[in-house]
TrEMBL record:
This is Thiopeptide-type bacteriocin biosynthesis protein. InterPro entries: Lant_deHydtase_N, Thiopep_bacteriocin_synth_dom. Transmembrane segments: none annotated. It holds the Pfam family Lant_dehydr_C. Residues 42-695 form the Lantibiotic dehydratase N-terminal domain. It comes from Thermosporothrix hazakensis. Residues 777-1034 form the Thiopeptide-type bacteriocin biosynthesis domain.
């Protein structure tokens, strides 16, 4: 395989495999009766696995074993569940209790990895996190806690007007999802201030009494009880999830508290942990008496009915190690393909719309406090599709890109051809990949994880290249190392060191960025089982839990601000004055996290395309899709069939079996297939009555309008490479982290980092930024068709502005073209003094209203003017910039008028280039300054199109062999405003020399260039790119002249 791809694989991988070898599947499905199935489950290892996975099923099976009567329907359901669990034990590699485990291994020049016997694998038993949280909640209700357990303010709180808002109350027992709020009285505000650092409840009571002597003790205690219940105050007893062994931390804290009642609880809890350690020493198949004893201890300490009470992970012991490094290269190539073929080249679709709303409300250089932005009371609320809690922007996400019509047609043709020719496989060539790409230059994520199954018959086949890499059902993650976090407690020292070194390299490569681990308490407590791990990054952000790093390395939510650069969001710490990338070393679905957590992760990933499983597009709903293989080596999708209820009669069972075989023959469906339902997969033998009965049951439950999905078993039984000491083969998958090579195409993240983020020195308040109607600025949206805008600006609008100037009503004005999504002009008028503010507003409304009555304008709205202070140099520069906007609006109006009267006869793109060059020459940027700025900000593009204009444009800017006739009228138009341009430029340079300018002069000039193109040409981004590219190429051409 070619080595010329942007990613390189890490030197290690995670092996995942089920507890039992693949041949166990045949033993399971060959049983002749339910009793025989029950007998098969008598094996100690299987009983141990079932007890941990489903105590309720285990109990039901024990009743059946003992001969106690139970209803036939319940028995049938129990046997069906048992069958599915037994099939999973040998066919599904996803880690789950004792059903499947993991091993950490490395790549080498030869494959030799073999599993040890199943009884030698290592288990790690710990309290289930739901049970542990319930224990902590029970302890917090004890009267003694007021004297011994410190509490502090929940850091997600924020004030909105007269209310204190708790956006994520996290009250487990009430399934609380919606935010809640309380009146922000002086008492509540004082409590919030006191609790910014941990304090005992008794201390809080005392200090509140001192501050509010008129309040009774009962009133203050009631207030604190309510604050604890509503999660305004959270206990420091709440365990940090960023620890290797959280249960041990809880034990240490309980033992340290000065209370005999809590010491009794600590002693009982310690015995529970000792019992778990004893079970782990015995390993898979341990004594059931020990499991019963452990459960009894847990129920006596916490009588509540919580099941399961324990959680188990398993480390697979390897007899020998190492896998051939060519597999690692295949993972790197797969990561590249997933990015190139993704439908989401612009990142998360819902963030693109949120970005538009952000820019509309705040501007492009504004930084907004994170909690304020996500607040429905003060900000935009959470983006669309965010549901924890649901926001005002709704749950509907953006649709897939419109540019997929050609892609869909090609894929439908591939699928139809395979169906016509009865082929299960389609080969995807490099030429086809290029045709399917939505972007010729995809922006690659800095790192990924790739989940692969390897289709190979033996270790020799692996070493001689006789294999295929098959994308696993879960194709991977957008951040290298994410899958590895959950299992850190299972790694050996050297393995952990390799993972830490891999993560550390990310930080070392970006010293100007802070990497912070996100640790949050999931909305569903049992989900915490898969997020517990020590932080791998230098900083930590916590939500509804406690940090594990020193206070100076904790980044508080109210310290974070959000901004946008180059069409993407970024985060910054005000205290540390650096950009922050938030990482989450867990595979827990971030879409189900509290909104603030999801936003932190998605914004940190909003720097590249989104690698997602290959999407067949419009062909996705066809009844058959072939296996899709890239260059005969990488399987992007196995073959798949859809089966509807109406396709096969489900009654009686014998007819169903016969009809199924006929359907298989008609559609060329293999014998061994997976029944796929979301992330659940069950291997079926379609010639076996036992598993066909499961398929029939599933089909009977399916809505007649829906289909069930069957996917070929690939790798099949003949191509399972992983073996144990006895040469039994196993279903398996590997997880490979990959990172961008240093010479690879620069990702969006790297571009932003290299250019830096000129962050504002301070946060501008809404009062400073916003100018309401009736004050010194009047701000109107004037809606009219795009085709009429130039004429309107040149004549109607200018006539009105001229009359206002003549009457001494305004001293500044400017316009901007915009779309929201309707095309319109944004007009801003500044009153000369306070005496004319009211009349200016009245005249503006009368003028625009009369135009609407005449149907010249379609709609008029009056708005608040939010000044983009940060973008244009800060508070001391904004008025000077508004003066520039005034002269630029006058200039663009003049050029549009001259063009309409044919006084200037020039292609609009060339007019924009020449006016820009003359404008910034007058500002004081030399030829070399302008060329250097363009070289650093504008890519070399549109070269072919430029060649047709090269000579004309070069002569227009700097005459060499002839003087272009249009040069003088354009240059004279600019020079009309020479004095004003010099004045503004001088003011900006003075502020910069005094270090009072936010950002720098060149950054501001870049924004002024954008606004000049907007006023002259409109909002077409392609036109803007062409203008900038032509400008650069013209100056390059001039610079290349012999003299």
């Amino acid at each position: 395989m070619s080595m010329e791809h942007p990613y390189q694989a890490a030197g290690f991988y995670l092996l995942r495999a089920p507890l039992l070898p693949a041949h166990t599947f045949f033993q399971v499905i060959s049983v002749s009766s339910p009793e025989a199935l029950l007998q098969l489950a008598e094996h100690p290892v299987i009983r141990h696995a079932l007890y941990v996975a489903s105590p309720s099923l285990f109990e039901r099976l024990e009743l059946i074993r003992s001969g106690q009567t139970t209803k036939p329907q319940k028995m049938q359901r129990a046997f069906s569940r048992l069958l599915r669990y037994l099939i999973r034990l040998s066919t599904r590699p996803t880690p789950f209790g004792l059903f499947a485990g993991i091993a950490f291994d490395t790549f080498a020049d030869q494959s030799n990895v073999r599993l040890a016997a199943s009884h030698r694998h290592k288990t790690h038993t710990r309290p289930d996190m739901y049970w542990l949280y319930a224990l902590l909640s029970f302890i917090e209700t004890l009267p003694v806690n007021q004297e011994v357990i410190p509490y502090q303010a929940n850091q997600t709180l924020y004030f909105a007007g007269s209310r204190l808002v708790v956006p994520y109350p996290d009250i487990y027992e009430q399934s609380q999802r919606a935010s809640l709020s309380v009146r922000a009285t002086s008492v509540v505000k004082h409590l919030h201030q006191l609790a910014r650092t941990p304090r005992l409840l008794s201390e809080l009571v005392q200090k509140m009494q001192e501050a509010f002597p008129q309040a009774s003790l009962q009133q203050i205690e009631k207030l604190l009880q309510s604050a604890v219940h509503n999660h305004i105050l959270i206990s420091t007893l709440q365990l940090p999830l960023s620890q290797m062994y959280p249960a041990s931390i809880v034990l240490e804290r309980l033992q340290a508290l000065p209370s005999s009642r809590l010491r009794d609880i600590a002693n009982a809890f310690e015995k529970i942990l000792q019992a778990m350690a004893d079970i782990d020493r015995e390993g898979p198949g341990c004594s059931l008496d020990k499991l019963y004893s452990l459960s009894d201890k847990q129920h006596r300490l916490l009588p509540r009915q919580i099941s399961p009470t324990m959680q188990v992970d398993m480390r697979l012991q390897l007899h020998t190690k190492q896998l051939h490094q060519d597999i690692a290269q295949a993972a790197a190539k797969t990561a590249e393909l997933l990015t190139r073929l993704s439908l989401y080249q612009d990142g998360y679709p819902h963030l693109r719309e949120y970005h538009r709303k952000f820019a509309e409300r705040y501007g492009h250089y504004t930084e907004v406090p994170l909690l304020e932005l996500l607040s429905p009371e003060k900000g935009l609320d959470a983006p669309a599709t965010y549901m924890e809690p649901p926001g005002i922007l709704g749950s509907a996400g953006a649709s897939t890109p419109e540019s997929t019509i050609r892609r869909d047609a090609l894929l439908c043709e591939l699928a139809a051809t395979a169906l016509r020719e009865r082929k299960r496989e389609v080969r995807l060539t490099e030429a086809l990949v290029e045709q399917l790409q939505l972007s010729a230059t995809p922006s690659y994520p800095p790192s990924q994880e790739v989940y692969l199954q390897v289709h190979a018959s033996s270790y020799e086949a692996l070493d001689y290249g006789q294999w295929r890499a098959v994308l696993a059902p879960n194709t991977g993650s957008l951040s290298g190392g994410r899958t590895f976090g959950r299992f850190m407690h299972l790694y050996e020292h050297d393995d952990l060191a390799r993972l830490q070194q891999y993560i550390q390299r990310q930080e070392d490569e970006h010293p100007d960025i802070l990497f912070a681990e996100l640790s949050y308490r999931p909305l569903y407590p049992r989900s915490a089982n898969v997020v517990v791990h020590p932080t791998l990054f230098s900083y930590e952000i916590t939500v509804n839990t406690m940090p594990s790093v020193p206070p100076e390395r904790v980044i508080q939510l109210d310290d974070l601000v959000v901004g946008i650069r180059q069409g993407r969001f970024y985060l910054r710490s005000l205290r540390l004055k650096k950009e922050v990338i938030v990482c989450h070393t867990s595979m827990l679905n971030i879409r189900k996290a509290p909104n603030v957590c999801r936003f932190l992760i998605e914004v940190s990933e909003d720097r590249s395309a989104l690698p997602v499983p290959f999407d067949w597009g419009a062909a996705e709903h066809l009844p058959f899709l072939p296996r899709l293989v890239y260059e005969d080596k990488i399987v992007l999708r196995p073959a798949r069939w859809l089966l509807r209820r109406e396709s096969i009669p489900t009654d009686p069972a014998a007819s169903f079996f016969e009809a199924l075989q006929a359907w298989r023959a008609a559609w060329d469906v293999p014998r061994y297939t997976y029944l796929v339902n979301g992330d659940q997969r069950l291997l079926l033998d379609l010639e076996n009555a036992l598993t066909v009965a499961e398929l029939r049951t599933e089909l009977q439950k399916t809505d007649p309008t829906q289909s069930i999905q069957l996917e070929e078993m690939y790798p099949d039984f003949e191509h399972l490479w992983l073996q144990d000491e006895e040469k039994h083969t196993y279903v398996s998958e590997i997880v490979v982290p990959v990172s961008l090579r240093s010479h690879a195409g620069t990702s969006t993240q790297q571009r932003v980092t290299q250019e830096g983020i000129p962050s504002p020195p301070a946060i501008i308040s809404a009062r400073e930024r916003n100018i309401l109607p009736g004050n010194d600025w009047v701000y109107l949206h004037l809606y009219l068709p795009l085709s009429q805008q130039n004429e309107f600006i040149a004549d109607t609008l200018f006539a009105f502005v001229h009359s206002l100037r003549q009457s001494a009503f305004i001293d500044r004005w400017f316009y901007v073209r915009y779309r929201d999504p309707e095309q319109h002009l944004r007009l801003r008028l500044h009153a000369c003094n306070a005496d004319v503010q009211g009349r200016l507003l009245q005249y503006a409304l009368e003028w625009s209203g009369s135009l609407a009555e005449k149907e010249i304008l379609e709609q008029v709205t009056l708005n608040t003017y939010s000044r983009e202070i940060e973008r244009y140099g800060g508070p001391l520069a904004i008025e000077q910039i508004e003066r520039f906007f005034t002269l630029d609006s006058d200039l663009c109006r003049h050029l549009l008028r001259s063009a309409s009267l044919k006084h200037i006869r020039l292609d609009p793109l060339l007019l924009a280039v020449s006016s820009l060059d003359f404008l910034f020459d007058t500002w004081g940027f030399t030829f070399d300054d302008r060329l250097q700025w363009l070289r650093t900000t504008v890519p070399e593009a549109f070269q072919e199109e430029f060649r047709t204009h090269q000579k004309e444009l070069s002569e227009l800017l700097v005459p060499w062999r002839l003087i272009h006739p249009m040069r003088e009228p354009i240059q004279q138009a600019v020079l009309t405003y020479q004095a004003e341009i010099h004045q503004v430029a001088h003011s900006i340079r003075t502020l910069e020399s005094r270090q009072q300018l936010w950002g720098n002069q060149k950054d501001i000039a870049g924004s002024l260039v954008h606004m000049h193109i907007n006023r002259l040409l409109g909002i077409d981004s392609t036109d803007e790119q062409k203008v900038l590219a032509f400008w650069r190429l013209a100056l390059e051409s001039i610079a290349a002249r012999p003299s």
